[in-house]
# Entry
Amino acid sequence: MFRRLRAAGSGALATVATARTMRVATDDADQWQRSNYRGARVSLAGGPTVAIGALTGAANQSSAAAFACGASAAVLGLYDDLYGDSHARGLGGHVRALSQGRVTTGMVKLSGLVTAAALTSALEHRRPGRIVTDAMLVAGCANLVNLLDLRPGRALKSVAAAGAVTASREGVAGAVAAACAGAAVAALPADLNEEVMIGDCGANALGAMLGWSIARGFGATGRAVALTAVIAMTLVSERVSFTAFIEATPWLRALDEWGRQG
# Structure
């Protein structure tokens, strides 16, 4: 228990410590500004901030594999944030673009996530089937958190909840999940106040590390259930708007809107 609390605290403290530095460093750079769902200009500084927080928590657990997955996802996400195109949406959009001979930044990011996850799993001497499962969980969770990041606080609330559940696992897997939850909670106020957004950098880093924690912390049945849920939600997102579903479900809408500006 102490190890998980320490990891959560490390993730939260590193997030808070990094926040002001990142905002000052990027405040005057137009490249770091985006319009949110209300048309307000918001800084992408929240992404590196929360990623650094979660990675610090993972580093304190001496988990090179979790750190590698999270760092790779953060870098790839930041690349997509700053240089990405908006012509392809969703997994289907990137696949269709590829079939037409156009490689999107989103496809580069997805390929990089799968590769990083597969390599870290292989270096831990996993069997081929396990390597595939691990890679799909890491990349799938990274993508899913990104899909949820359409309203202030939504992705961070989801990471905090999923991280708290996964933190129940013993060992380094639970501690890394706790670090993600701690970083998400620390970053939540600024995200809800629309001072920053976490973008692909933060969403992908947190999702990848959560995926890694699930892959390492649960047995074969738990991994299969988690992967099935991730795949199902990803496929559903191609047809159904998460925002529309949440707004049509009273208790989900209440949770989603909690703490958000008007």
In short: The chain has a mean pLDDT of 88. The CA atoms of residues 165 and 177 lie 8 Å apart. The two ends are 38 Å apart (CA to CA). Residues 2-257 form one domain.
